[in-house]
Amino acid sequence: MAYEDAITALADPMRRQIIEKLRTGALPVAGIADGLPVSRPAVSQHLRVLSDAGLLTVTPQGNRRLYAIAPEGVDDVRKYLDTLWDDALAAFARAANEKAKGRTK
Amino acid sequence: MAYEDAITALADPMRRQIIEKLRTGALPVAGIADGLPVSRPAVSQHLRVLSDAGLLTVTPQGNRRLYAIAPEGVDDVRKYLDTLWDDALAAFARAANEKAKGRTK
DNA sequence: ACGAATCGTAAGTGATGACTTACGGTAAGT
DNA sequence: ACTTACCGTAAGTCATCACTTACGATTCGT
Q1: A33-90, pLDDT tens digit by residue?
Q2: Given this model, what pLDDT does residue B31 score?
Q3: For residue A53, which of A5, A33, A96, B55 is within the disulfide window of CB 3.0 to 4.6 Å?
């Protein structure tokens, strides 16, 4: 039931851009906001959404807060798409069979 | 460059519900709209979005139009999440190593 | 040929959300 | 202790989008 929030969170381009900056490892808020065309509070709000969706982990470290991608949250969406892909392929194959049968009539 | 549109399309709950109805196979618009709490034109608009995102295929059949899930479109999003998952795991492992090294200091 | 069915599109409305500036709170440095 | 740095939250604005009703086009049945 968690993958819905994760997909919704990943739908925003700015949030995907944030995710991209975290691919190589954890970063503090200022490090994430650096280079992005929006204000730092805006980044904080996005980080909140991503965290609530289970896509990010937060580890307070002294003055700052380190954000990192949560592999488990990504995996939830992954598994949903896997089952969807399986079903889509099965339905596709079945439709192809039906069509072939009709053609030979 | 296509997975972005696909994720955006999948972000809407009603569109995910439509996808669910197509898991078992293709359906005409009326068949999709049946049981859904929105009007048929609303469903048509969602189908348009999903098609443009590459997640659905349309096959006009006489009077009606059959919509089905496009496995290829789903696979695009799948592959994006796979690479994201890989990077997240690698970053996580590296951070764990850093922490362990610090702990033994 | 005519009526019914199936579907897409246009126009308009309401709600959601992404962004800004302003402010408060906590930790580090001197 | 006082200042500085880092960060989250509140309030308000503006654009986007999901939905509705109304309409037009195409295809099937009689």
Answers
A1: 999 999 999 999 999 999 999 999 999 999 999 999 999 999 999 999 999 999 999 9
A2: 98
A3: A5
Mean pLDDT of B40-66: 97
Chain A closest CA to B82's CA: distance in Å? Answer: 7
Residues, CB < 7 Å to strand D = A 28-31, 40-41, 44-45, 47-48, 58, 63-65; B 11-12, 14, 37-39, 41-42, 45-46, 49, 62-63
Do residues A7 and A77 touch, judged by C-beta distance below 8 A?
yes
Encode pLDDT of A3-21 as tens digits.
999 999 999 999 999 999 9
- Measure the CA–CA gap between B81 and A104, rounded to whole angstroms: 41
Contact flag, residue B44 CB and nucleic strand C, below 7 A: yes
- Does residue B30 belong to the interface with chain A, where contact is any CB pair within 8 Å? no
What does the DSSP assignment read for chain B? --HHHHHHHHTSHHHHHHHHHTTTS-EEHHHHHTT-SS-HHHHHHHHHHHHHTTSEEEEEETTEEEEEE-HHHHHHHHHHHHHHHHHHHHHHHHHHHHHHHHHT-
